[in-house]
Amino acid sequence: MRWTHEDALRRRGHRLIAGLDEVGRGCLAGPVVAAAVILDRRSRLPGVRDSKLLSEAQRRQQFGCIVLSAIAYGFGVADAEMVDRMNVVGATREAMREAVVSLCWPPDALLIDAVALPDLDLTQHSLIHGDARCLSIAAASILAKVFRDEMMKEFDDFYPAYRFRRNKGYPTLEHRRAIGVMGLSPLHRRTFSSQLLLPQQGQ
Fold first, then answer.
1. How confident is the model at residue 1 (pLDDT cuts 50, 70, 90)?
2. Checking CA distances to 50, which of 4, 16, 18, 149 falls within 20 to 30 Å?
3. What domains can be seen in the chain, in order of their start residue?
4. Where are the alpha helices (DSSP H) in 15-75?
5. Which residues contact 178 (CB under 8 A, 6 or more apart)?
6. Model confidence, pTM
7. CA nearest 36: which of 123, 129, 104?
8. Cβ distance 117 to 18 under 8 Å?
9. How would you classify the pairing of strands 32-39 and 109-113?
């Protein structure tokens, strides 16, 4: 993956360019997590690509490569209550804003996967399928995915019946059947209830 979008901003005078992406928008349980990362232009990250194209082991390996070479990185978390209160788009924007604010070096431009952040007075470009087109966004997608997966594994220790370690809160058949038996946990999003319709056992 090339530096095409980053270099276009550098030609306009920007130097601290943060890529942003999120994970968890389509889940029934757990938070939306956003990551922001400012990469060093001298970094060599040949294994970085859209996190969905990598195995868990590959994502973990690339996570280490990214954090070791980044100028700055940060995370934002919008929990299930915030998703219910603000809707998932609003919660995603809030998580992204938090990720940007948490950076130890304030960015002067943003490259964002398919979302605009009007509350941030920064030059920003929203790219559809940005995690497949932009190195900084792809790196952010890996950071967000690994960070959230580790959160869901820890939640599994408290709510083992839902198998969060395996499904990460996504609406798998096993997860939806567990909800049918156990009801909703404090980690579940009440406004996603339309997705909780369960087939009967054996169907």
1. confident
2. 16
3. 4-153 (3.30.420.10)
4. 56-69
5. 161, 162, 163
6. 0.94
7. 104
8. no
9. unpaired
